[in-house]
Specification:
By secondary structure, the chain is of the alpha/beta class. The protein is about 40% helix and about 15% strand. The protein has helices at about 10-20, 40-55, 60, 70-80, 85-100, 160-165, 190-200, 220-230, 235, 245-270; strands at about 105-115, 125, 130-140, 145-155, 180-185, 200-205. Strands 1, 2, 3, 4, 5 and 6 form a 6-stranded mixed sheet that branches. A hairpin with a 7-residue loop joins strand 2 and strand 3. It is globular, with a radius of gyration of 21 Å.
């Protein structure tokens, strides 16, 4: 399945546009009342999706009907309003209602990507010769559906990001009584265990000195989710400098991953019964 199926464009825009504030077609503050019309949000939205998928600069994806300045200005408005995070929450709610989230087992892990332009959310990457990089910490359910994402510099350790990452679970309607959080061995430590005890979660933390394939357990789903999110060019090589814009793209990509999984699992569950094949006449 492609990172952005065509069938997702209209449903995603319907939910996205419903969260946008109403804007007049022409600015009422213009003294002559003849200011040029506002570029439709739908046009800008399609350019933003192109930037997310391909990772191209706004000058490259700009068109005669939508300049790069318009894309940047509209992005700041949408990021300040938290539109993508609300769309992600709506996608999770729809998935939980139609398929059901597997919240008995959670998996958390971080992923380091490139951030050549630096910025508010970037830091020195320990795996890229000290170049600027971005880390995202993701928590998923037992099947790999991203529940929340947190951005940080590439030089940040995974363990301190566990608290803000699990705090994003508050957007869910409720959690089971017994929740197990599967973590890599880099999270092993007193602060991590104290945090899990305070939240009432059980921790399945990989132990140091044991090869990863032997104790991978249920943690592999978050690695697969990172692979899905790395399919978007803007996340693999983020050139944004403002943290709100970085978070906007992260949650928009997470919403698309949730919707893709919703379509995939709904297709497997809602198939028509197959008819028996008739014998071929000789």
């Amino acid at each position: 399945m492609p990172v952005l199926p065509v069938c997702l464009l209209e449903p995603l825009w319907d939910q996205f546009s419903a969260l946008l504030p109403a804007r007049p077609l022409v600015s009422p503050t213009h003294p002559l009342g003849c200011h040029r019309p506002r570029i439709p949000d739908r046009v800008v939205f399609e350019h933003v999706l192109a930037a997310l998928v391909h990772g191209s600069g706004y000058e490259r994806i700009a068109s005669p009907g939508c300049s790069d300045v318009t894309i940047r200005r509209r992005l700041k408005e949408w990021a300040a309003a938290g539109i993508s995070e609300q769309v992600h929450a709506l996608a999770l709610r729809a998935y939980d209602r139609m398929i059901g989230l597997d919240l008995d087992d959670l998996a958390v892990d971080g992923c380091i990507t490139k951030a050549p332009s630096g910025g508010e959310a970037a830091g020195r990457s320990p795996v890229d010769r000290g170049k600027q990089g971005l880390k995202r910490s993701v928590v998923t359910d037992g099947t790999g559906v991203p529940l929340h994402v947190v951005s940080a510099g590439a030089n940040r350790h995974d363990a301190p990001l566990l608290g803000p990452t699990l705090a994003g679970l508050e957007k869910l309607e409720g959690l089971p009584d017994d929740v197990t959080v599967h973590l890599a061995r880099g999270y092993d430590g007193g602060p991590t265990r104290a945090l899990l005890d305070a939240l009432g979660f059980d921790g399945a933390i990989a132990r140091k000195g044991i090869p990863a394939p032997i104790q991978a357990g249920s943690r592999w789903v978050v690695e697969r989710t990172h692979g899905w999110m790395n399919g978007y060019g803007k996340l693999r090589r983020c050139t944004e400098k403002l943290r709100p814009i970085v978070d906007f793209y992260l949650f928009l990509a997470a919403a698309l991953v949730v919707l893709r999984q919703l379509i995939h699992r709904a297709r497997l569950r809602s198939r028509w019964p197959t008819r028996p094949t008739s014998r071929r006449l000789k």
